[in-house]
Amino acid sequence: MKNKVYIANPIPKYVEEYIGKYCEYQIWNGDSKITRDKLLENVKDVDGLIVFGHKIDEELLSVAPKLKVVSNLSVGYDNFNIEEMKKRGVVGTNTPYVLDDTVADLIFALILSTSRRVVELDKYVRQGKWKKDIERTHFGLDVHGATLGIIGMGNIGEAIATRGKFGFGMDILYHNRTRKPQAEKELGAKYCSLEEVLRKSDFIVLMTPLTEDTKELIGYKEFDMMKDTAIFINGSRGQTVNEEALINALNNKKIFGAGLDVFYKEPVDVNNPLLKMDNVVVLPHIGSATGKTRDEMAMLAAENMVKALKGEMPPTMVKEFKKE
Ligand code: DGY
Q1: In sequence order, what DSSP letters do the residues of 117-143 get, joined into one string?
Q2: DSSP state of 56
């Protein structure tokens, strides 16, 4: 008998067909995101679940007693209650590697658009304000030759550092749980304390995963340490930053600007003050959102699911679930 799988987010047809070869499956094809209630209803009888961002917590696990695998359609897995999943013998997988360059490209889009004020000045032109040469008050900051500080030097962090070093001649500082000897050798990346990265960088890019330790890692104290010309970029998760402290830093010109792909609450509230600020570029969590990369992520998530249900090692199991 085939294992039963529920796919809570749309995936390409060919990936569905691949899953169909090995599993009996149902897929959410509604116009909007599946509601929590519908998800809980649809996982009751399943062995496997493919999700993007849905909380895998005690409540969900207790209504899905047969569940063995949760395959995330993302590299981040802060939606997993790891202890609870382990207690119940459920393993979790994610989609690293295939999205590294796509996310790194997007981080550079944020670096360039914030420093050269691309969105703000695009509006200026469209609104018919370009009547004479622009004033000094519209000038931006250079990216080439600047210091790029990366907090969270995983694969994506390294892909960002590579672009910074070889594309823009930037000096690379980084803070991470572990040293990265290869990045130090090949990119001249300098390992620093968090404080040193915050104080010395022109661009501070936050890429750390969201965990108990990194929740609100960047708050009032940390923004105070930054240069008043610094640009803060968040490509990790919104909750790694105290959003009030970020708003305060931007309002009081403690930093030059911010580029945000993620927010404390997503989708972001339209009344969030960050959306009213000219020196902030905002995006709807699109780090990995190109067709090619999202398709590759879906295929990897499917392979993870199929392998794990066969009792084989999935290609990218989350490290916390690996046996010592
Ligand atoms: C991830 O995969 O965790 C990214 O944030 C999605 O864009």
Answers
A1: THHHHHHHHHTT--SSSPPGGG-----
A2: B
Q: Is the pLDDT of residue 324 over 80?
A: no
- Phi, psi (5° rounding) for residue 44? -50, -40
Q: Amino acid identity, residue 74?
A: S
What percentage of the chain carries pLDDT values higher than 70?
A: 100
* Cα 311 to averaged position of ligand 1 atoms, centre (Å): 27
pLDDT tens-digit series, residues 264-323:
999 999 999 999 999 999 999 999 999 999 999 999 999 999 999 999 999 999 999 998
Q: How many other CB atoms sit within 10 Å of the CB of residue 236?
A: 27
What pLDDT shows up at residue 323? 82
| Of 51, 118, 67, 100, the residue nearest 257 (C-alpha) | 118
Ligand 1 pocket, residues with Cβ under 6 angstroms: 74-76, 99, 285, 287-288
Residue 148 parent element (H or E): strand 147-151
Atom of ligand 1 nearest to the CA of 72: 2
Tell me the whole-structure pTM to 2 decimals: 0.96
Domains of the chain: 3-98+291-321 (3.40.50.720), 100-282 (3.40.50.720)
DSSP state of 324: -
Q: Which atom of ligand 1 is nearest to the CA of 103?
A: 7
Q: Determine the Cα–Cα distance for residues 148 and 140; give it in Å rounded to an integer.
A: 16
Distance 126 CA to ligand 1 centre (A): 32
Q: List, by residue number, the catalytic residues.
A: 237, 266, 285
97 Cα to the center of ligand 1, angstroms:
11
Q: Cα separation of 87 and 290, whole Å?
A: 36
Residue 52 DSSP code? S
